[in-house]
Amino acid sequence: MAAIVSFIGWHDCGKTTLATGVVASLNQMGYRVAVIKSSSERNIEFDTPETDTFKHKQAGADSVMLVAPDQMVLQTKQKDLSNYLKRIKKRLKNYWAPCLTQVQRRFEIAPC
Fold first, then answer.
1. Residues 39/67, Cβ–Cβ less than 8 Å
2. In b/e form, how buried is each residue of 9-39, taking b as 16+ CB within 10 angstroms?
3. Distance between CA atoms of 46 and 53, rounded to whole angstroms?
4. Would you list the domain boundaries of the chain?
């Protein structure tokens, strides 16, 4: 079972600095680390320099997710996403269900 660690505190109290340090340390010890950044703000930029999600990725997180009132974004370094996509496809239907039209772009995984 995966361990879950949460950092909770006031705005600008050092949560991201602490979290990125922990991510970097765990990564150096050989652990695979995922980070979930939650926010009550809207229109947050994902994975641009100086954002928390960018800092988590730079620290070595294998997966970074942003959850906000108006968006949910997941970025992962997983090498083989085929099994992962199969597992989450059912969960994603909850988010796609209200849509009348879905546009999908298929990609193939080629061996390197």
1. yes
2. eeeeeebbeebbeebbebeeeeeebebbbee
3. 6
4. 15-96
Measured between alpha carbons, how far apart are the two ends of the chain, in Å?
Answer: 31
Which amino acid is located at 87 in the chain?
A: R
Q: Is 96 helix (H, G, I), strand (E, B) or coil?
A: helix
Q: What is the pLDDT of residues 47-102, one digit of tens each?
A: 889 899 999 999 999 989 888 899 888 888 866 767 767 767 766 666 666 655 55
Pair of tokens at residue 23: 């991510």
Q: Which residue has the tokens 């772009």?
A: 105
The whole-model pTM stands at 0.71
Paired tokens of 48: 């641009």
* Cβ neighbours of residue 26 closer than 8 Å, sequence gap 6 or more: 33
Contact 87, 58 (CB under 8 A): no
